[in-house]
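Sanity check

After download, print the first record. It should look like this:
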Amino acid sequence: MAGIKDTAEKLWRGELTTRQQHPFTATGELEEVAPNVAFCRWLGNFAICKTGEGLVLIDTGSYVNQEQMLALVRAYSTARIHTVIYTHGHLDHAGGTAPIAVEAGRNRVARPRVVGHRAIAERLDRYRRASDYNRRVDDLIYGGGSSWPSDFVYPDTYFDHQLNVVAGAEKFQCHHARGETDDHCWVLIPSAKVLCTGDFFIWAAPCAGHPLKLQRYARDWAEALRAMARTGAEVLLPGHGSPIFGAIRVRQALNDTAEYLTQIHDQAMAMINQGSTLDEVAHAVSVPAALAEKPYLAPIFDEPEFAARNVWRANCGWYDGVPAHLKPAPAAEQAREIATLAGGYARLVERALARMEEGALAIACHLVEWAAQAAPDEQSVHAARARIYAARAAQSESTLSYRIFSAAAQESASKVGIAMPQIDRRF
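Expected C-alpha cells:
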C-alpha cells in the first residue's frame, strides 16, 4: 500500500479518486507528517503529537475499534498520553478514549486531560437518550451490526470560544465554530504549522445536510474555513481522508470548500426571501461546476440538495411552505386515496415500473411508495418496490442516498422472501 504522503499527492493530482479510496476508508496507516506529529488514517482520523510532557492526541477515532486505535498510538510512541483534544463529539472521532483511561489506571499514572467544547456534554447526554435511534442510523450508514456504547468519556476541560492547550513547550490552539456540529473546533499546532480540521474538511463535499442527523450550519462553517485558510498552515489533517501538504494547497482547499458552502447557503436564502417553498429551494440550488469538479468536493457522502434543506431548517423551521403539509392527513390515508383515484394499488405499481423503465426513478419511487402504504401486505407491491429502490440506489452518487435507498429495497425484499435485487452501482 502506498504511504500517506504518496496517496495524498495522487489524490490532489487526480491520479487517484475519492471513489477509488473513499475518505471513510480506515486503512490503519500511520505516518509522521511533520516533526513530532503523526497522522493516522482511520474511520475518523486522529493525530498524535509528541511533547516534553507526553503525547497529545487530537481525536481518538471510532468506538467500534478502540483497542486497535490504542495499538496504533503505541506503535508510534510508548510515552504517557498527557492530553486528548476532541474536535467534536461524534463517536467516530471521540469514541476511542476509554482504553486510554484504562491503560493509565493499569500503569498507575494520571489519566489524560480531555479537552472539548462545552456543547459536547449535551451531545453525549443526547446519545444516551436516543441510543436505539443512533444504533439504527449507524447500522444503516455503515452496513449493520453496530453496537452503540452505553458509556462515554466526557471532557474534563471545557471551553466556549478559544483555548490554548499547553503540553511541554508545545501549544495547541483550539478554536470553536459551528459547522457539521455545534460542538466543533479546529486545532492549530503553530510550531509544526499543522492544522487539524476535524469534520470541517473531509475530502468530500461537506456533510452539511445529513438527513438523519442534527442541524448543520453552512454559513458559520464557511466562515470557519476561511479563518483556517488565514493561519498559514502547511499541513492539513482532515477528519476523514488524506492530508494535504503545502500552504498554497491547504489555503485553496479550505477556501474552495468555504465557497461551496457559501454558494448553497446564499442561493437558498435568496429563494427563501423571495417566498419559495422548501421543495422549490431543494430542487433549484446547485454548485458551480468549477467547484463540484474539485477532487476534494465530490458529493460522495452528502449532497447539495440535502445541504439546502438544512439551510431551510436553520432559518425557517419545519413547515415547508405548502399549506396542506401543515396538518396533513396520515400518509397511509393519503396513499389509499391516491390508489382509489388511480384505480387500485396495482395500477400504481404498473405505472411505477413503467416510469422506472423510462429512467424516471424519482417519480417511480413516489408511485410505488403510495402503493406500499395503500396495500402494505401485498407481495407484488414489495417485489416492485425492491426493484425500484435497488435501481435508485444504483444511480445514487452519495453514500447517504445509496444506503437509504438500498435499505428500502432490502426491507421490501425481506417482506416477500425474495433475494435482494442486484445493485450495479455506477460509482
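If your output differs, re-run the checksum step. Summary of this record's structure: The first helix runs from residue 4 to 13.
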